Amino acid sequence: MATKTIAILSDSEGLAPEFFEVLGSSNHRLLFVVGNAETKEHLQKSLNFLKLKAEIDFIGCEKDGCWEADKILISMQAPPSKDMIKKVKEVATQKPVWVISPVDSHGRKVDLQQQLPNSRVVEISIQENLKEVSLSSKEVVAKQEIRQLFEVSGYTVN
């Protein structure tokens, strides 16, 4: 089976080490979308520390990275910018988009399904200490795919 590529759009604060350990132990190619050298260097150090088995690459453009990917992961502390959402939306039609749930400046969860209506969005909430994950989506197949990744890694999925 061909290796699937996951484009990862993450700020350095949004890195969820537990999630990357789950992805890194799978048969995926992880394509990190990084706009500047400092962030790339920080990510490389973090990923080296995790000792992931997956193939890891870097690319500088959100649109190109998401175009190349089979799946997209958005993992950020703050909500993605309108510019980033626009670039992702242009190339993510019918692709699974996994979102580690960001909140806005008022502490409200951001609804990316509304902003990416033609993508198969799955919201992910991770309780690291308990090895529990909650998934929220209307997309049954996309939700099942991410469920399997976590369950194989020993997580309880709600």
Radius of gyration: 14 Å
* Number of strand segments: 8
Cα shape: globular
- CATH topology, by name, is Rossmann fold
How far apart the termini lie comes to 29 Å
As a percent range, the share of helical residues equals: 25-40%
Would you identify the regions where 5 or more consecutive residues have pLDDT less than 50? none
Structural class: alpha/beta
Level-2 CATH architecture: 3-Layer(aba) Sandwich
Fourth-tier CATH superfamily name: NAD(P)-binding Rossmann-like Domain
Estimate the mean pLDDT confidence: 84
Largest sheet: 8 strands, mixed
Percentage of residues in DSSP E strands: 25-35%
CATH class: Alpha Beta
Q: Count the DSSP helices.
A: 6
Strand order of the largest sheet: 3-2-1-4-5-6-7-8
Report what the structure shows.
With 158 residues, the protein is of the alpha/beta class. Helices cover 35% and strands 27% of the residues. It has helices at 17-24, 37-50, 62-68, 82-91, 112-115, 140-152, and strands at 4-10, 28-33, 55-59, 71-75, 96-100, 120-127, 132-136, 156-157. The chain has an eight-stranded mixed β-sheet, sandwiched between helices. It is globular, with a radius of gyration of 14 Å.
Q: Topology, please?
A:
Layout: E1 4-10, H1 17-24, E2 28-33, H2 37-50, E3 55-59, H3 62-68, E4 71-75, H4 82-91, E5 96-100, H5 112-115, E6 120-127, E7 132-136, H6 140-152, E8 156-157
